[in-house]
Write a structure and sequence with these properties.
Structural class: alpha/beta
Keywords: Iron, Iron-sulfur, Metal-binding, Molybdenum, Oxidoreductase
Strand content: 15-25%
CATH superfamily of the largest domain: Dimethylsulfoxide Reductase, domain 2
Shape: globular
Cofactor: Mo-bis(molybdopterin guanine dinucleotide)
Domain 4Fe-4S Mo/W bis-MGD-type: 17-75
Radius of gyration: 25 Å
Largest sheet: 6 strands, mixed
Family: Belongs to the prokaryotic molybdopterin-containing oxidoreductase family.
Mean pLDDT: 95
Number of strands: 25
Number of domains: 3
CATH architecture of the largest domain: 3-Layer(aba) Sandwich
GO molecular function: iron-sulfur cluster binding; metal ion binding; molybdopterin cofactor binding; oxidoreductase activity
Number of helices: 23
Length: 713
């Protein structure tokens, strides 16, 4: 089947086909092992989870199962394009690959000659999680001394909060969710975003009678699977955690013997929590006292409780504090001691993969400025703080991300991209909101069309993603673009350049003390799960004294993505508490902005990926904001009405969905929809802010106060 405008269905499975083994490349902690039917004419057919992979267990999300629809989409970019009209006008001229690469390189050379090397800002993120295709752009950055990239937008508050507590990003084997007596799914809509969490949680329920607790800000699909569903007000998770620990001390659920050996100051914590009663937390969280008491009793009397801590509840301005508080509950209860017990957020630190050559770390100059990816709007509109009080950004190469759609303060972002003195090259698979604002657009391969290596966050395997099918002849990989630009920019002789993807994979594996590419080709994955004693911290936590930190050092503690000294501490770090506590640095609703808005993920999109596929769009319908019936009645809003949402950053129009799935005073906009899918061509991130989460940065995209009214147009 050819790549034609009539093609938007999966390739049929023919009798003569073989199975290709790979890994899902998308920004999801599950990193599912995949089996893909490959037809004799070189196409992909059915995509499914690998049954012999112990974590994937044959189950993948529906959007990835439909991957052929994305690969053979009629709107997939197929040719390099040069802008032929005004920015964003949508007029393009086809050009050759050589011309496109020459124009990009020449624009970079001119920008450097005029404003120095820091005028060029390579910008990327997690559109693919493959190490070679995602991170090779860093090697070009360091070789050319282009502006640095502080990758803050997704993980920073969560990673910071967890490592403040434990000293490292690891935890109990995720398979233990299938061998526990209680799973607490905290701040992640796993049914929509991490389906394998539910696979293992439901296994424990069926085989052991385990209870499933879900904590989130609305009645989402994961909530509907819960035995105990706790809907908290956005940004109040730390209050719930503190009340649970208060009850644990009060009712003798706290494991004092465990804490005496493994925690830094249990006596100080107990004294601090004296006033953090269920009544105190109920007033903050919106839960009833009975709900808080029931939750505390369940986890307090269930030794084998597995706290699966997600990212969603940390995307608040107090998000790092909330993560630290939630992890502390497992320590007060001594849950870490038991199989099926403890707290897990990410296994990122267990893999020990050496990417120094891949990313060109030896060429990194610490004096080069670091710009926060979340503040791209501010940086491109000349904000001195965002630019670190240095010169403008006048040229960009963008891979694996779509900032005009996904970045906070969208109006600033679009204003920045509209600058006539800014040259932008976008390497993409579809004509995204960002690609539409580019000067040069070049078509990118998809994961089955190139080689790469992946490591999970939510499980414990390194997985190979070998090239399974040939890409269209006019489409190129990320690595190809970086290598070709290196030649044109005079750095192809620098360390790390000149290798194919397969060669670079082998070099990373060798430097990491791991088996080679051929081993992975045969065995498909490699298990890096540490021993039980290390995973459960029975040999001590990863602080110098081996103690879990109830009293974190918010300003000195190392973290996986701490900003460099030149950037320093971020956000209202002086307000961070000595012990776990509710910190009122969120955007609290006020008379002018009486609603709290969270921009939660949808089931059929993954950030802005899959928003282009026909089935995903049909299943999602159109952009909506979820409104409680009481709020809708008070504002004379009916289901389907066009409404306006706004705050100091801007305003948008969107359709109303009236539902009891949200509490009064809370609004949920699931997405992420393309800007152009909205009524006025402006998406939900018009309303989100780019001010950083304390202490090490991050975007608080679920933390927004807004006004709501019926549209009168």
């Amino acid at each position: 089947m050819k790549y034609t405008n009539a093609m938007n269905i999966a390739t049929p499975i023919h009798a003569k086909s073989r199975i290709g083994h790979t890994a899902c490349p998308h920004d999801c902690p599950s990193t599912c092992a995949l089996e893909i039917d490959l037809t004799e004419d070189g196409k992909i057919g059915r995509v499914r989870g690998a049954n012999d992979h112990s974590y994937t267990s044959g189950v993948i999300c529906a959007k990835v199962a439909r991957y052929a629809e994305r690969l053979y989409h009629p709107d997939r970019l197929m040719q390099p394009l040069r802008r032929a009209g005004a920015k964003g006008e949508g007029r393009w001229q086809q050009i050759s690959w050589d011309d496109a690469l020459d124009e990009i390189a020449n624009a970079f050379i001119k920008a450097e000659a005029k404003d120095g090397s820091e005028a060029i800002w390579p910008y990327f993120y997690a559109g693919t999680m493959g190490w070679v295709q995602r991170d090779s752009i860093e090697r070009l950055r360091h070789a050319k001394r282009y502006s640095g990239f502080f990758s803050s937008i997704c993980t920073n508050p969560a990673w910071t909060g967890f490592t403040m507590a434990t000293g490292v990003l690891r935890g109990p084997d995720p398979h233990e969710m299938g061998r526990t007596d209680c799973v607490v799914i905290w701040g992640t809509n796993a049914v929509a975003t991490q389906v394998n969490v539910m696979t293992h949680a439901v296994k424990s329920r069926k085989e052991r009678g385990a209870k499933i607790v879900v904590i989130d800000v609305y009645d989402n699909p994961t909530m509907k699977q819960a035995d105990l569903a706790l809907i908290v007000k956005p940004g109040t998770d730390a209050a719930l955690a503190c009340a649970v620990m208060h009850i644990a001390f009060r009712d003798s659920y706290a494991d004092r013997t465990y804490m005496a050996k493994y925690a830094d100051d249990p006596a100080g914590l107990e004294q601090h929590l004296k006033t953090k009663t269920p009544e105190w937390a109920a007033a903050i969280t919106g839960l009833s006292v009975d709900e808080i008491e029931a939750f505390a009793k369940l986890v307090g009397t269930t030794k084998k409780t597995y706290f699966r801590l997600g990212y969603g509840f940390t995307r608040q301005r107090n998000g790092a504090v909330a993560m630290h508080a939630a992890a502390s509950v497992a320590t007060v209860l001594g849950s870490w001691q038991y199989e099926g017990g403890g707290a897990f957020h990410s296994n990122s630190d267990i893999f020990r993969m050496d990417a120094s050559e891949l990313t060109g770390r030896s060429m990194k100059d610490p004096d080069i400025r670091m710009i926060d990816q979340s503040q791209i709007g501010r940086a491109l509109t000349g904000d001195a703080v965002a630019l670190r009080h240095r010169g403008p950004v006048t040229a960009m190469l963008i891979q694996n991300t779509n900032p005009v759609n996904i970045a906070p303060e969208q109006r600033l972002v679009k204003r920045g991209f509209a600058r006539n003195d800014l040259f932008v090259a976008v390497h993409e698979q579809f004509m995204t909101d960002t690609a539409e604002m580019a000067d040069i657009v070049i078509p990118a391969t998809m994961f089955v069309e190139h080689d790469d290596i992946y490591r999970a966050g939510g499980q414990n395997h390194i997985l190979l993603g070998p090239k399974l099918v040939e890409p269209p002849p006019t489409v190129r990989s990320n690595l190809f673009v970086i290598e070709e630009l290196a030649k044109r920019l005079g750095v192809a002789d620098k360390p790390g350049f000149g290798f194919s993807a397969r060669e670079m994979i082998d070099r990373v594996l060798e430097r990491s003390g791991l088996p080679d590419y051929d081993y992975f080709l045969e065995h498909k994955w490699f298990d890096r799960q540490p021993a039980f004693e290390d995973a459960h911290f029975l040999n001590g936590f990863a602080h110098p004294d081996g103690k879990f930190r109830f009293r974190p050092d918010w300003v000195n503690q190392p973290a996986p993505n701490r900003p460099p000294a030149a950037v320093g501490l971020l956000g209202p770090h002086v307000a961070l508490p000595e012990f776990p506590d509710q910190v009122d640095v969120i955007e609290v609703a006020d008379p002018d902005h009486p609603f709290r808005l969270a921009t939660s993920p949808s089931r059929n999109f993954l950030n802005s990926s899959f928003a282009e596929t026909k089935t995903s769009r049909q299943k999602e319908g159109h952009p909506e904001v979820m409104i409680n019936p009481a709020d809708a009645a008070a504002l004379d809003i009916a289901h389907g009405d066009l409404v306006q949402l706004g705050n100091l950053r801007g305003d948008i129009r969107i359709h109303a969905r009236i539902t009891t799935e949200v509490k009064p005073g809370v609004l949920i906009a699931e997405g992420l929809w393309p800007n152009k899918a909205h009524v006025d061509g402006e998406g939900i991130n018009v309303l989100t802010g780019a001010d950083p989460v304390a202490p090490y940065g991050g975007a608080a995209v679920h933390d927004n106060k807004v006004w709501l009214r019926k549209d009168k147009a």
